[in-house]
Amino acid sequence: MTNVELWWYAPDDTNIDPAEHEDVFMAFATIPPCTRLFFDHRAVDEYLLTNFGIAQGGAPLRAIQFIDSDGRQWLRNETGLRAAENERVDGQDIGDPPARQEPAEHCDK
């Protein structure tokens, strides 16, 4: 997967203008095939606090968006997986995700 993004709902009690941004996100370039990620919640909390002023637990996760190996863009949220409708227009790639990576089970390589 490439252009992987975690999206959170922007809470009302921050300095984020809801007319401009209803979401905030963390982006990273690539996750290898057949990989499970276990996110370090402390690193994610620090990222949200430092970059958006959002306190721990203050922003519920909205979705994960990514581009698959065929170049299709997808969005996974609480309702399932669907083709993504919006492309990211701003933001910053943070490099490696703040997560432990392990091989995924039952993955055809």
Descriptive notes:
The mean pLDDT is 79. Strand 5 and strand 6 form a beta hairpin. This protein has a five-stranded antiparallel β-sheet, covered by helices on one side. A two-stranded antiparallel ribbon has the order 3-7. The two termini are 14 Å apart. The chain has 109 residues and is mostly beta strands. The protein is globular.
Mean pLDDT: 79
Question: What fraction, in percent, of the residue positions are helical?
Answer: 10-25%
Reported for the largest beta sheet, the result is: 5 strands, antiparallel
Oligomeric state: single chain
Q: What is the rounded distance between the termini? A: 14 Å
Number of strand elements? 7
Order of helices and strands: EEEHEEEE
Summarize the structure in short.
This protein has 109 residues and is mainly beta. It has one helix at residues 41-52; strands at 2-9, 23-30, 35-39, 61-67, 73-77, 80-83, 99-103. The chain has a 5-stranded antiparallel beta sheet, with helices on one face.
